[in-house]
Amino acid sequence: MRICDSIRPNSPFISLEFFPPKERDAWPKFFNVVDKLKTLDPLFASVTYGAGGGTQDNTLEIARRIKADHGIEPLTHLTCVGACDDALKDYVGALEDAGIENILALRGDPPKGEENFDFNKQEYKHATDLVGFLRQHYKKMCVGVACYPEPHPESPSVSFDLAMSKHKVEQGGEFMVTQLFFDNRVYFDFVDRMKAMGVDVPVIPGVLPIMNIRSAKFILGLCGASIPGNFLHELEKANDEGGDDKVYEVGMAYAQRQAQDLIDKGAPGVHLYTLNSAKACLELGSSLKL
């Protein structure tokens, strides 16, 4: 199933993002989470792999099993780090052999521990390079791309970031998945700006339910997203009054309101960053009126 052919007007959906465990002894627990979240009837589930492609083999095997054994359509991540023509052909060929038809093309993050890593020295420097490669060699593959409602931390300006998002689609990206955000206005503003630039592919908003202060600050530090002041104050107050349990309650209520508002105002669906937590995503997903 090509995801881009399954996104339809006025048919909102839920999709998920999974992080494959590095160690195989953690796989049974992981697939137990997959089974639980299958009850949400997600349109697809994206499957990540670590910086530098360190768990790429795990991504392939887990994506294959999610599709064959659990009946969920996988969207496999593919990054530029360490990519070359032969390696890409081997990997994408293996995806095709497994019946996997969807790839999310990303630049990716620098490998951990390599402070002076330079993407300009890579054979594939940008996500657009991957998109172009896939469009040239694998025309039947559905290719998604990432986008940032708030500018990417490395972008020199908002206009540059918007131009890069447009370029990904011009190269052949067929839908977008956003980085997480907490203010829906930035999402709808991004969609409007894309349309004004002639870009009209589906833009799927990414939603993260905040479960504790520590994880929130860590994730925000990675992606550069901002938290509205009132919400941050509410989270900090909840943490002072009741710790993680109270923060979870406040964070979940916010995520439910945010996701429902996105759907009610015309987003094609919502992409839930699960952090491999069945409880939070079940609670959030089952609360939504699609």
Give an overview in words.
This protein is α/β, with parallel strands linked by helices. An 8-stranded parallel beta barrel has the order 1-2-3-4-5-6-7-8, surrounded by 4 helices. 47% of the residues lie in helices and 14% in strands. The two termini are 21 Å apart. It has a single domain (3-287), classed as Alpha-Beta Barrel (TIM Barrel). The longest helix is centred in the C-terminal third of the chain and has 36 residues, at 229-264. The chain is built from 10 helices and 8 strands.
Record the SSE blueprint:
Blueprint: H1 3-6, E1 13-18, H2 27-37, E2 45-47, H3 56-68, E3 74-79, H4 85-97, E4 102-106, H5 127-137, E5 142-147, H6 158-171, E6 175-180, H7 184-196, E7 203-207, H8 213-223, H9 229-264, E8 269-273, H10 278-287
Parallel strand pairs: 1-2, 1-8, 2-3, 3-4, 4-5, 5-6, 6-7, 7-8
